[in-house]
């Protein structure tokens, strides 16, 4: 019975583990690359802000981008998120 319960528990938390893994990988890359070398990530996050923000793991991705951004990158990303705030506040993620 214990093995079945443990297997079911691991299966149930798999999406959480995947999310944590994705966030950790992104944070590690942003931290290692530095703001200038990771500009392509910020460009993509801004260019596809609505797609990222409405993805089930997107909020975590945007948070990590904001955490490791330099001033200009942070302003651009926060401005993009803010300009879509009304629509984003009405979106219900699965």
Layout of helices and strands:
Blueprint: H1 2-37, H2 39-47, H3 49-54, H4 58-68, H5 71-83, H6 85-90
General description of the model:
By secondary structure, this protein is mainly alpha-helical. It has one domain. Helix 2 runs parallel beside helix 5 and helix 4 runs antiparallel to helix 5. It is globular, with a radius of gyration of 16 Å. About 7% of the residues have low confidence.
Outline:
This protein has 94 residues and is an all-alpha fold.
What are the salient characteristics of this protein?
94 residues; 86% helix; mainly alpha; 0% strand
Q: What is the helix tally?
A: 6
Please tally the β strands and state the result.
0
Low-confidence stretches: 5-11
Report the radius of gyration as a whole number of Å: 16 Å
The largest sheet is: none
Mean pLDDT: 76
């Amino acid at each position: 019975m214990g093995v079945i319960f443990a297997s079911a528990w691991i299966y149930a938390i798999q999406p959480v583990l995947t999310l944590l893994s994705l966030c950790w990988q992104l944070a590690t890359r942003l931290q290692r690359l530095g703001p200038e070398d990771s500009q392509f990530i910020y460009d993509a996050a801004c260019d596809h802000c609505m797609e990222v923000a409405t993805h089930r793991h997107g909020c975590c991705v945007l948070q990590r981008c904001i955490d490791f951004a330099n001033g200009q990158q942070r302003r651009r990303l926060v401005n993009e998120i803010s300009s879509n705030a009304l629509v984003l506040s009405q979106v219900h993620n699965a």
